[in-house]
Amino acid sequence: MMNEAVAVVEEAEIDRLPIDLLAHIFYMISSFTDLAQASAVCRRWKLGVKLSYGRREKLRLAGCKMDDDATVRIVRYAHALKELDIPRSRWACQITDRGLSGISSAKCIGNLKFISLWGMTGITDSGIVQLVSRSSSLRHLNIGGTFITDDSLFAIAKSCPQLKTIGLWCCRHVTPAGLIVLVGKCPKLKSINVWGSRIPPYCITDLINIRPGLEIKS
Q1: pLDDT digits (tens, 9 = 90+) for 14-63
Q2: Are 32 and 62 in the same domain?
Q3: Which of 78, 114, 122, 163 could serve as a FRET partner for 129 with CA atoms 20 to 30 Å apart?
């Protein structure tokens, strides 16, 4: 009985907290599993969790087992987001083109400066083209280990003039033609990783001739 009484008192106390303070408490929680459980407690906690996402500038989903719908929902809540990191791991979010399509319509997409989707084998040119078409502020992009082709590189070259680094390791379907367009149209590009790709030596020389000082990891 005593434990139950304490629980009731604690619940009453936290219910008195202003919603902004409650959101700040949830903001301090890094586990998305814990946040999902908190969101299911009541409507007020659900709102607090939703508002906490809106304060996040960095979102890293490493090890989070989430589908496209859950990922899109979180990103859409994160209005202040500047860095989105969805790396592959054993239990990672296996996002697909459908997920990227949903993310591309989020309010934060135009402010993102960092996106990493390395190892996401479920994404193709279709998803990447939609995503980067609204990512004009993008500085750093890692899409290594995916099955993208030159079509993605053409879209990046067209939409991401601020791009400084790009990871394309093991992207074996990109060609010299795509890389030349990318380097030629991204004037701030400083580093490109094409390790494991099928890029001939002459292409490396051509890229350096286009942009002297470019760091090429191959």
Answers
A1: 667 788 888 888 888 877 778 888 888 888 888 888 888 888 999 888 76
A2: no
A3: 78
Instruction: Estimate to the nearest angstrom the gap between the alpha carbon of 14 and the chain centroid.
Output: 33
Task: State the Cα–Cα distance between residues 197 and 140, nearest whole angstrom.
Answer: 19
Structure-token pair, residue 131: 């995503």
Q: What is the pLDDT of residue 170?
A: 93
> What sections of the chain are H helices per DSSP?
2-15, 19-27, 32-39, 43-53, 68-77, 97-103, 125-132, 150-159, 176-185, 201-210
The CATH number of the domain holding residue 132 is 3.80.10.10
Q: Give the torsion sign (CA, 86, 92, 97, 103).
A: negative
pLDDT band at 90 (very low <50, low <70, confident <90, very high): low
Residues 6 or more apart in contact with residue 80 via CB below 8 angstroms: 54, 55, 56, 57, 108, 111
Domain shared by 176 and 210, yes or no? yes
Diameter over CA atoms, the chain: 78
Burial of 173 (0-12, 13-18, 19+ CB in 10 A): middle
Query: Using the 8-state DSSP alphabet, how is residue 188 labeled?
Result: T
Query: How many domains does the chain divide into?
Result: 2
